[in-house]
Amino acid sequence: MGKRKLHNRCYYSCDWTGYAMGSPNAYMPVFKNGKMTKKGSYCNFESVVAHARELVKQGAMTAEQAYEVNQHVLEMTGGVALPPSEELHYANLDHFGGDLSMHAFACKSIALHPITGVKVSPKGVYEVILSPEKEDTATAREMYNNHGVERMHYPMENYLTTPYMLPRSEGHPHAFLTKETQKRPKLKQRDVVFFYHMQPNGLPHNAAASKIMKRDICGDLLIVAKTREPNLFNEMRLVNFTGQMYDDVFEKKKRAAKPVAPSAGICSDEWNELQGELQNSLTDFEASVSKDAEQPGTLAKGAVMPPATGKELAVVAELRGFTRPTVESRC
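RE: above sequence
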C-alpha cells in the first residue's frame, strides 16, 4: 500500500490494517549486512509484529528475520510490545467483514503492563509500581467499554497525595492532574513524563521537585518515561523509569578527584640524616648573609648629628613653657 494520492493530497495506508494515515508512522525493519532499512508504513508496531508473523506463515519471511523484527520492536517500545493475538488479524476488522472497529483495534493492540515510576515527595524519593486499571470515564464508556472492549489506563492520582482544596469534576474523587512531557538528552528513544497537581494546592513545598521543574511545586511529583514511537492512534506508551535512571538524569554527579601517587616512606635513620643536612645548610646560609654585619652599638657611635638651629631650639623652648625674651629683659 504505502503512499497514495487522492484529491491532490497524499496520504499513507497501513500495510496491515489498511487504515489511512497522514504520515508513515511505524515501519517494518529489514536487516541486511548489519544495516537496517525501513520498509512500509504501519499504524503501530503491534501491526508490524502481526504482519511479520503472517509473513512467516506464508513462507515470505524466515523465523530468523521475524526474530530480528521482534527484537527491534521490543527496543523501540521499551520491551512491552507483545505479539498481538489472532483476534487482531486484519480479517477481523470491520472494513474487511469482521466486527472489530478502529477504536477497539487500537485498545486491544496496545496492552498495558505494570511499570516502575519514581515519586518525588517532600519527604524523599521513592520507586513505585504503577498497575493499570480499567478506565471508567464517559469517553472510555462511549468509545470502548460499551462496545465490549475494556479501556485500561494508569491511575496516576492514586500515587499522589490528594490536595482536597482543589476543585473536582462530578463523579471524580480526585483533583485534576497536570501532565508535562520533556525531552532529556541522557535518555535514548525516551521522553520523561511528569504528573503533579495544579499549583498552588495547599500541600507542603517540594524542594527537590521544584529544582527539577525549575518552578515552585507543592506536593508530590510522579515521574515515568514514554517511548518516542510514532503511531496512528496517538497512544502514549508509558515505560519504566527507575531510581537509577532518576539519578542519571536529575542528580549532578561529583567529579572524581584525580588520584595522587603514593609517596614512598623513609626510615628514622634517613630522616635524622636529612634533618642534619637541612640544619647545616641553614647555618651556612645565615653565616654568608651576616658576615658583613656590625654590632648596633658600633653603628650608634659612628653616627654624627648636625647642630640644632635657633628655630628648632625656639620650638623646643615653647613646648617646655618658656617664653621668648623681650628687649627690656635683655637690658
